[in-house]
Amino acid sequence: MYLKILRLFNFKNFSEKNFTFSEKINCFVGNNGVGKTNVLDAIHYLSLTKSYLNYSDQNNIRFHESFFSVEGNFWNDTTEDTIRIVVQTGQKKVIKRNFKAYEKISDHIGKYPCVMISPYDRNLISEGSEFRRKFMDAMISQINSDYLHLILRYQKALAQRNALLKLFSANHYFDAISLEMYDSELIENGTKIHHIRKEFIASYVPKFSNFYSALSQGEEEVTIQYISDLEDKEPSSLLKENLEKDRAAAYTTRGIHKDDLIFKLFQYPIKKFGSQGQQKSFLVALKLAQLQTIKEYSSKSPILLMDDIFDKLDDHRVAQLVKLAHEEQFGQIFLSDTHNDRTEKIVQQISSDYLIFKL
Ligand SMILES: Nc1ncnc2c1ncn2[C@@H]1O[C@H](COP(=O)(O)OP(=O)(O)OP(=O)(O)O)[C@@H](O)[C@H]1O
């Protein structure tokens, strides 16, 4: 599966722009602010129906315009699919596959998978646990269609339980029976989520370690540890033991909504002790492992989007990344860089089948 044609209309800084791509490697080069990231983001839209960078669809409409459209033609051996996404001011987003609108947007997810490596990923290291949970949940959702429903059910019960705790606190009142209704939902779904996360991480981490080791040429030891309140406690005892604390705080203080992934370099938190290049290598390895996971489960080669990829990586690591791209037989690759000559020199080593788009 690969993206052959991309048509942008009023998408961010592009009024109208068409591209015809190589099946293998496509590079966008140009100065800061010319729209390199925006093209990668348009491809992300076609794959996952949303921007990687901007949660509001409306913000992606070109300034002073009333709608944008992004259209792509995906080729799969002999068949061709046209995906078209239109966002109009004040209206619901429309996504069509071969000119027919989807009933549910979720029906599109997974058909044309992609993985993005972006400078914004550094939030995964620098920010709070919710970023890492979202990353983990997004990865699992792409390979397990039931998982998202479990998460949604858990989140709904959690929000209701928290609202009730807040009400009790405001009114200096407590009713254990009504709280227990939500406890059972949290226990049932939380147990399943914990089990799935644990299993997933056990198979994901070795892939991640292999990629990091390849990038650093085996010189650095990295680990990812999954931590959860449910690791050594039954969810029912956890809720019981923390009831007084929850009442005082007026929210549910413990549970799988507090799970985290601990990223370490030589047993030290990479956030505090990793250099910028080491952190970038860590993020690249996380994403390549994600790509490999999707590939194994779906038997499709996801499109790899790499924004500003060579920045902060030394020549050895760039060479290793090139080697990986060559040996691992990734699918179609899109990358962006500010340096034309550097890009050309690097991609020539991966494949002779490449195109460079100067923006
Ligand atoms: N809704 C919008 N309408 C018009 N222009 C927009 C919109 N949103 C963003 N832009 C413009 O898009 C440009 C940024 O594009 P992008 O982030 O793709 O640049 P880039 O080439 O990747 O730059 P860098 O090398 O700095 O990463 C900016 O000039 C910004 O003003």
TrEMBL record:
It comes from the Bacteria. The gene is recF. Coiled coil: none annotated. Residues 2-344 form the RecF/RecN/SMC N-terminal domain. This is DNA replication and repair protein RecF. GO terms for biological process: DNA replication; DNA synthesis involved in DNA repair; double-strand break repair; SOS response. The RecF protein is involved in DNA metabolism; it is required for DNA replication and normal SOS inducibility. RecF binds preferentially to single-stranded, linear DNA. It also seems to bind ATP. The keyword Iron-sulfur does not apply.
